[in-house]
């Protein structure tokens, strides 16, 4: 469960970006986070993953209040999260296998155990036949799927994606959303920030809409 209670966020010298945001996301739910460019979607995702701290209010992940966590505990909390960004943040001097391997190697998982998990993650996103390819040789949609494989290889319970379909044409965007649906169906909590109107209109999931620092909760109708 993820709960925000009257969360406010101001960066040093900035206006107030979030002005008292409260919502709850159940375990295993898929939720869209919508709003115009600059509305604060990335800020809200960063607060969720404890990359940023609220100026005031409470952010609960499970039963942990992340505003009160000691810095030493934050790396453990982060292991719950898989993160996917619009610009992929792939390493272009490493092949696909090595890109997906990175989070495992950082956590000390290596050898045949790691290889099995890396290939399972590549398989889930349809890139098993590309493990030796360099990311630059992949299409935009494939690069985004590679970033998703890297995000899920550590089997996170929460998957956060920030504009994952932003640079992609409609068919690729549909593929990416289908992947997120598949992860939700196996119990992962998924939060996708997007201003892609197609993604929003075709989604049967709940959408949280940010506007002027405040949240409106929308229930999207089935298309
Ligand atoms: N580290 C920072 N320091 C100061 N201001 C920031 C910082 N990060 C974001 N902002 C400001 O916070 C506001 C919200 O930014 P944020 O990236 O959260 O919005 P967004 O809805 O994700 O936008 P986009 O869809 O364009 O990515 C913007 O005005 C931005 O300039």
What this model shows, in words?
The protein is an alpha/beta fold. The chain has a domain at 93-154. The protein is 33% helix and 26% strand. It is built from 7 helices and 10 strands. Strands 6-7-8-3-9-10 form a 6-stranded mixed beta sheet, with helices on both faces. Strands 2-1-4-5 form a 4-stranded antiparallel beta sheet, covered by helices on one side. A hairpin with a 2-residue loop joins strand 9 and strand 10. Helix 3 crosses helix 4 (111-124), helix 3 packs parallel to helix 5 and helix 5 packs parallel to helix 6. The longest helix is centred in the C-terminal third of the chain and has 16 residues, at 170-185. The two termini are 27 Å apart. The model has no long low-confidence stretch (mean pLDDT 91). The site of adenosine-5'-triphosphate has 12 residues, from helix 1. Homodimer. Forms a membrane-associated complex with FtsX. Belongs to the ABC transporter superfamily.
Number of helices: 7
Our measurement of the CA-to-CA distance between the termini, rounded to an integer number of angstroms, reads: 27 Å
- Name the ligand types: adenosine-5'-triphosphate
Structural class by helix and strand composition: alpha/beta
Helicity range of the residues? 25-40%
Report the β-strand fraction as a percent range. 25-35%
GO cellular component, one term: plasma membrane
Protein name: Cell division ATP-binding protein FtsE
Membrane topology: Peripheral membrane protein
Pfam families: ABC_tran
């Amino acid at each position: 469960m993820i709960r925000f209670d009257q969360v406010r966020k101001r960066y040093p010298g900035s206006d107030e970006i979030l002005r008292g945001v409260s919502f709850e996301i159940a375990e295993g739910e898929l939720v869209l986070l919508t709003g115009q460019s600059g509305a604060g979607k990335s800020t809200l995702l960063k607060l969720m993953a404890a990359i940023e701290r609220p100026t005031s209010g409470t952010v609960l992940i499970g039963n942990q209040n992340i505003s009160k966590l000691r810095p030493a505990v934050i790396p453990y909390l982060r292991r719950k999260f898989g993160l996917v960004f619009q610009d992929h943040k792939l390493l272009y001097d490493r092949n696909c296998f090595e890109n997906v391997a990175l989070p495992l190697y950082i956590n000390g998982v290596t050898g045949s155990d790691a290889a099995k998990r890396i290939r399972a993650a590549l398989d889930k996103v349809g890139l098993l036949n590309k493990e030796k390819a360099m990311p630059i040789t992949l299409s935009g949609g494939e690069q985004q799927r590679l970033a998703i494989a890297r995000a899920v290889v550590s089997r996170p319970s929460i998957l956060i994606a920030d504009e994952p379909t932003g640079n992609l044409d409609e068919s690729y965007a549909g593929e990416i959303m289908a992947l997120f649906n598949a992860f939700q169906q196996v119990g992962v909590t998924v939060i996708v920030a997007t201003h892609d109107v197609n993604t929003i209109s075709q989604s049967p999931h709940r959408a949280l809409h940010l506007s002027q620092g405040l949240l409106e909760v929308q229930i999207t109708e089935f298309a």
